[in-house]
Amino acid sequence: MADTKRVFIPGCSLPSYNPDAVMKTLEFLQEKLPGTGGILKCCGKPTKALGQVDKFKERYGDFQSEVDKLGADEIIVACQSCFLTMSANSPNQTVKSLWAMFPTLGLPERAKGIGKKSDITFAIHDSCSTRDRKDIHDGIRWIMSELGYKVEEPPHTRENTKCCGFGGMIVPANPDLAQRVMNKRTEEVESDYMVTYCAACRESMVKGGKKAVHILDLIFGDMYDSNSEFPGNPSSPLKGWTNRYKSKSNIKKVLK
Amino acid sequence: MSKFTYPQEVLDKMRDIVDNCMGEEVPYCEATCPMHTDVKGYVNLIAEKRYEDAIKLIREKLFLPASLGRVCAHPCEENCKRETEYRQPMAIAALKRFVADNFDKEELWNLDKKENNNKKVAVIGAGPAGAQAALDLVMEGYSVTVYDRLPVYGGMMRVGIPEYRLPRNIIDFEYSLLEKLGVEFKMGVEVGKDISFDELKENHDGVIIAVGAHKGVIIPIEGHDKDGVLDAVNFLRDVSLDKENVKIAKKIAVIGGGNVAIDVARSARRVGAEEVHLVCLEEKGKMPAHDWEVEEAEEEGVTLHAGFGPEKIVDENGKVVGFEIKKCLSIIDDEGNFNPQFDENNKLVLDVENVVFAVGQSVDNAFVNETLETKRGGRFNVDPVTLQSQIENVFVAGDASGGSVIAIEAMAEGRKAAKSMMRLFNGEELHTDREKEGTYETRLETDIKEGTEDLPRISTTQLDPKIRIQDFREVDLGLTEDNAIEEASRCLKCECKLCMNECVMLNDYCECPKDLFENILETGDVDPMIPYSCNMCSQCTIACPKDFEMSGRFMDMRKVMIKQNNGKSPIKGHSAIEMHQLLGFSKLFNTSKPAKTSSKKAEKGRS
């Protein structure tokens, strides 16, 4: 088992949104960093957010045992909540954000300069949970620049970014308020197009009236311009669970 | 249902926010105003052209808006953020005058007083201190009689401040509120002469002394007792009460550098003095008088001898014929004491027939027959917190106790004395909770917002000096409506509430975090929806000058609620998350795969 130096953990929202991106990311990491395993499992953050201290301990313990079983001493995350939760709760592993790693790993060849000819500008939405992680902010800007897309920095950006409206589990609790928070975020953004690096943030930007992509859509997908069809939001939770199941199959496929 | 018991450390952190959040702190202007007028409130109502609302708001604190709009020394403007930042303070007094002059109506006045409580109070003095005390007492149901030896209302506002600064009909109109409320005025009645102080005490449950400082001070220099030496208090009173019969020489000198000296000089110009010399120790720009008053006096032909002191008054046969002055080198000595030094080789004699001393006033306290302690300037010795004298039911307000210099301070003192007296009658403690009476320092700290323009203060227009010295018509013409709106719109609306600009959720539930947590601490009650509506994004903390972590407090509350609700969220919508979690941890959607074994070699090869 010691062959698994590190493990890629895509989180929950990304696998529910884009199973293809999960697969391609894992393939990419396999190629660049041999010895990378994969875990698809919730870290239990929702229980923590609700204040369920005991339940979270139980859930996280469950998750931690999977990491330990693989013997990885490094965790690569694509979710900012995972980044914070695992940094705080997995003292024996080094937790790295995928976004901060890209400048060192480089982009896949086909992605380099793909957005140069695009006629649109992407406003960057930073995740508020990692507002104090400059390395992540810088990584995202590096990726956008390498891809060749034009970007817009909203008035609230980087360490001063605004919440997308999804955080704190308020969507199921107070959906009307969540919608107003989403609108407040998108109102201050000039461009009609936004890029996020969290699938939940992306969904919020769409609810706030923008056309929005996850940055992995730009890295592993086709070039996006004003004629592109942009991903919408799922009409039912079923779509998410179907995607999650596909993500699971994809991980298994890559690490066969 | 929504009552929860919070552990002490959770409560302590909430308490910290309640004690130190600046969301409810009053702006600089309001804290500085001795009467705590809601300046920001009425200025912005003027900006919105809601003039009637503005005058109503002013009248909640001030019964003399048109008078104060003219004569208030407006300490509020000195602490206005536009002053401390740009030296261009809001023209607060002028805005008050604008709205009072044009929109004050007797129909708007609050005459809703409490039922009579059969207690009688005498107020000695109908100046701003006495009148405010009388007003506060009559509103609370007391029978109030005001005695004044002057035949007219207003005290020093009437016989000290010249008519060209405050037309007399305005004072009478504004004082008529007291008449409407049933305050009895005994004008032209002198306590100590027409009625004794003892009799007054016997016939009333309490007495408020607000007699002001109406005795002029004359410095005993050589010649001070000659015919033609006057004091400012008497001169200004004579001008106010009977200007047609005031006798003043063609050439006069005034000694003093304060606003009263300016009032004397300018009044003298209007009653026949053609050559007026104003002599003061201070250099121009350092005079106690406001700069604009000095300027206006010079416009009216007053000759300024700034930086000079008196040597002697020259007489011929007992009549003043000259005033010898000498250059002042310094006023305060190394120990910080008043100790003026002069250049004995730099003297000049002013060719004048009157010398008017405007160097201070003292209190005429003879009427109490030494039954009360007095101090410097004849002022009464009182407890500074309560204004109580040595006689339990006698309180002293305004200039008579030295607690005030300007009208608005006198009013605050009147209010303080009335409050103390009512507490005494009600058997309550006199000293507690009195820190925020009169001027105090707000805990508010604000920075100028990005994009704020340094807009200049809009000044009022003045009557042409040539015309205005012909009589006592009002000099300051006030603001036009357009000017008032433009000026009012400059207000920076100082407040903290920076978190409220950022957070959508807080605005749904409170005015500011202090408001929210104070409510929780007081009642122990909270809608669980409040903590569960926080996005935990920390935007509030970033904005907060005190770095308060509201999200942390909401998380504390969530944990308590879960604990006291059998481990479940009290929010209905959260059952979806339980389902989500169930699936998120189910084998169906989980996988855990080690790295490919084939990659082992590749990695070795790489390194």
Automatic annotation (TrEMBL), chain A:
This is (Fe-S)-binding protein. InterPro entries: Cys_rich_dom, HdrC_iron-sulfur_subunit. Signal peptide: none annotated. Residues 8-86, 123-202 form the Cysteine-rich domain. GO terms for cellular component: plasma membrane. Keywords: 4Fe-4S, Iron, Iron-sulfur, Metal-binding, Oxidoreductase. Pfam families: CCG. Transmembrane segments: none annotated. It comes from the Bacteria. The keyword Cell membrane does not apply. GO terms for molecular function: 4 iron, 4 sulfur cluster binding; metal ion binding; oxidoreductase activity.
TrEMBL record, chain B:
Residues 20-106 form the Dihydroprymidine dehydrogenase domain. Pfam families: Fer4_20, Pyr_redox_2. Residues 119-414 form the FAD/NAD(P)-binding domain. GO terms for molecular function: iron-sulfur cluster binding; oxidoreductase activity. It comes from the Bacteria. PANTHER family: GLUTAMATE SYNTHASE [NADPH] SMALL CHAIN, GLUTAMATE SYNTHASE [NADPH] SMALL CHAIN-RELATED. This is FAD-dependent oxidoreductase.
